[in-house]
């Protein structure tokens, strides 16, 4: 077995390496283009960053192997970012997060998303130019407030979170890949981002000290009681994690979906027809969500096309992957964004085509990984489709979106990929 393996030194190195900087400059210049190009070098490619050597895994088959072996591959470098924002590593937290409030049956999370979406749709009665990403951030924050914080989040807090979000999202990819020393260099950006993380933590601390604004059932009291350890500090971190996960994940996905629908009137017509047939003027409740099959395909295509730039794994022991022996501690990078746009697996990969999902799931195992893979896979994955379906139904049942004049959408790739500058006009149907 060992005789047929090769060593990591034999693997190709990605083009664009500079002395001292490695591939950092290429990543900074255009991280998505750089990551998307790596599959051309082979299934395993060396990528150098200052003080850190990594190997990009570009083949779905190898990604699938990693997913299947949670014992050998642990969390890699990329979650350092969440750690910086939340104040510690986001381990097991989300097992609790999911049962505590992301579980729609237990917590009314879907009701909260529906109400938040309906509020926004009402305000969109006459909206010639909506900042869509901001509106979707507002939707998820309002849902967190309703389902978890019992109305403790005031308008000022929400405005403050909106102010902090761009810094919290900014440039996560490179900073997460930088070794700790470099990431903490006191550059203006690093200082601003670190401050944003601290400000979000203390805002949540303040919010948790308040009495609930309305209603008798207070999830916070129950959640604090239910904690085996950590108490309020632990709860604060769960909430910060959830703000981070829902704004960079759910809100971005909803914004991209509205963007694609606005550009494709016939697709939006099909979505409206399905909403009419399935909901018949009523709300999107949990029992009908499985019937929204076309809308689900649209979401799947959004999750394919606008996937996160990177997930990372570290070898917990020596492993053989793709015939190459990786020593314990080797850092592996996998780009869901790049895998999803690889023409070897997706026909015309840059085309937004929800019908490519008519035949079922991914073309090969490991080729669809919007929620990451293996033991560190996103723990929000079960709820994401349901919350997005509920939100879209609330937003679009009586509304139609069209591009706003003069708006230019830019793809901004941080920890996730978000549509900067997206503005839409909202019309009655
Ligand atoms: C469209 C929405 C979302 C997308 C695309 C998304 C995507 C991801 C991805 C790619 C990862 C990294 C997984 C890996 O390293 O293999 C991740 C991790 C994570 N996500 Fe999400 N996510 C979304 C929404 C959510 C929501 C709503 C929650 C919970 C409130 C959540 C909680 C988490 C947690 C806790 C982790 C870390 C898991 C761990 O390290 O054990 N995510 N997510």
Automatic annotation (TrEMBL):
The keyword Heme applies. GO terms for molecular function: heme binding; iron ion binding; monooxygenase activity; oxidoreductase activity, acting on paired donors, with incorporation or reduction of molecular oxygen. It comes from the Bacteria. Heme binds at residue 378. Gene3D superfamilies: Cytochrome P450 (1.10.630.10). It holds the Pfam family p450. Its cofactor is heme. Keywords: Heme, Iron, Metal-binding. Belongs to the cytochrome P450 family. This is Cytochrome P450.
């Amino acid at each position: 077995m060992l005789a047929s393996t090769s060593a990591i030194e034999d693997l190709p190195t990605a083009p664009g390496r500079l002395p001292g900087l490695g591939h950092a400059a290429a990543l900074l210049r255009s991280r998505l283009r750089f990551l998307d190009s790596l599959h051309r070098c082979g299934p395993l490619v060396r990528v150098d960053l200052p003080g850190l050597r990594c190997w990009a895994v570009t083949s779905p088959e190898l990604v699938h192997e990693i997913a299947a072996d949670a014992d050998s591959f642990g969390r890699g470098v990329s979650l350092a970012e969440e750690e910086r924002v939340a104040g510690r590593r986001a381990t097991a937290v989300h097992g609790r997060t999911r049962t505590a409030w992301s579980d729609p049956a237990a917590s009314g999370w879907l009701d909260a998303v529906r109400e938040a979406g309906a509020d926004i749709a009402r305000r969109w009665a006459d909206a010639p130019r909506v900042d869509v990403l901001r509106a979707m951030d507002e939707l998820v924050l309002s849902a967190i407030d309703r389902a978890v914080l019992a109305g403790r989040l005031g308008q000022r807090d929400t405005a403050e979170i909106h102010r902090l979000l761009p810094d919290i999202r900014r440039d996560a990819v490179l900073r997460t890949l930088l070794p700790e020393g470099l990431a903490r260099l006191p550059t203006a950006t690093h200082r601003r981002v670190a401050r944003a993380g601290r400000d979000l933590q203390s805002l949540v601390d303040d919010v948790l000290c308040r009495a609930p604004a309305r209603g008798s059932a207070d999830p916070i009291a129950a959640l604090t009681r239910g904690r085996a350890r950590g108490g309020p500090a632990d709860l604060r971190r769960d909430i910060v994690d959830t703000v981070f996960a829902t704004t960079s994940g759910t809100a971005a996905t909803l914004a991209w979906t509205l963007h694609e629908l606005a550009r494709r009137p016939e697709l939006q017509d099909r979505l409206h027809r399905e909403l009419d047939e399935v909901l018949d003027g009523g709300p999107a409740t949990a029992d009908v969500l499985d019937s929204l099959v076309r809308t689900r395909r649209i979401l799947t295509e959004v999750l394919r096309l606008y996937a996160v730039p990177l997930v990372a794994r570290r070898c917990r022991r020596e492993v053989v992957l793709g015939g190459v022996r990786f020593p314990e501690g080797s850092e592996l990078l996998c780009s869901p964004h790049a895998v999803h746009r690889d023409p070897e697996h997706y026909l015309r990969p840059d085309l937004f085509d929800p019908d490519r999902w008519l035949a079922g799931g991914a073309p090969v195992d490991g080729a669809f990984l919007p929620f990451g893979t293996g033991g560190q896979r996103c723990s929000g994955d079960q709820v994401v489709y349901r919350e997005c379906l509920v939100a879209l139904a609330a937003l679009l049942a009586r509304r139609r979106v069209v591009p706003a004049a003069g708006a230019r959408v830019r793809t901004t790739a941080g920890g996730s990929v978000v549509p900067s500058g997206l503005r839409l006009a909202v019309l009655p149907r």
